[in-house]
Design goal:
Largest sheet: none
Radius of gyration: 20 Å
Shape: globular
Order of helices and strands: HHHHHHH
Structural class: mainly alpha
Strand content: under 5%
Number of strands: 0
Length: 230
């Protein structure tokens, strides 16, 4: 009987094995059907102005992370109903850390205001109050961007959405290795935006290349954290 399960190189298979921080950039090309994967991913990305393709891409990202964290089979675009469900779970797992951070920082801000004034003056009618609010908003946004990848990986690893906002992710992100992963990811995302702007200037072909490069970059970022945090 022939085994049709997609195969990947050994370094991407053993969960406990160390993987280079940049291995995520070659992950897609290590799949046996990588051309088909990129073609389907590019098509879904081009159609991602609607909700369903976005969810399906998120589901593929969930499978990439499950492959890295739980020794699940290599990701493929199949079983579309289940892929859709996994995509919904992925989107929720990406949102939960930010919600937790917003709630947490809001409580800290309100508590600090109450400690200073003895009540909760919510008006921003003074420069100190406005400055405090702006700093808090910027800090909340940064924490959301910084902690979300770890929360997502945690949720997939435990197969539990609640793990996306577990306090344990704070510990896992306080390390030079995670900071390196995040800096690489941020630089890649910045490059993706610039690349998309360039491709947008090219009619027709630019749309195809832009969609393919966007899908590749998104999956590379997912694989970067999925394998970097195992």
């Amino acid at each position: 009987m022939v085994d049709n399960t997609p195969q990947t190189p050994p370094e991407y298979q053993a969960r406990g094995q160390s993987v280079s921080p940049t291995a995520g950039f070659t992950y897609v090309f290590q799949q046996e059907q990588w051309r088909q994967t990129i073609a389907i991913g590019a098509l879904l990305t081009a159609l991602s102005v609607t909700l369903v393709p976005t969810i399906l891409i998120a589901g593929y990202g969930w499978r990439v992370t499950a492959h890295a964290q739980r020794d699940a089979p290599p990701p493929v675009f199949n079983d579309w109903g289940r892929l859709f469900i996994e995509g919904c779970r992925a989107i929720i797992a990406l949102i939960l850390p930010s919600i937790s951070i917003i709630v947490g920082t809001s409580l800290v801000w309100l508590t600090a205001r109450f400690a200073v004034f003895g009540y909760l003056p919510l008006e921003l009618d003074s420069m100190p109050a406005l400055s405090t609010w702006v700093i808090g908003a910027l800090l909340t946004g940064f924490l959301g961007l910084y902690l979300t990848p770890a929360g997502f990986v945690n949720a997939v690893r435990d197969n539990s959405l609640l793990s996306a906002c577990s306090p344990s992710i704070l510990i896992s992100t306080i390390s030079p290795s995670y900071l390196l992963l995040w800096v690489i990811a941020f630089s890649t995302a910045t490059g993706l935006v610039l690349t998309s702007l360039i491709f947008s200037l090219i009619p027709v072909v630019g749309v195809i290349l832009g969609a393919a490069s966007t899908f590749y970059s998104v999956i590379a970022l997912v694989a970067l954290f999925a394998f970097g945090l195992r």
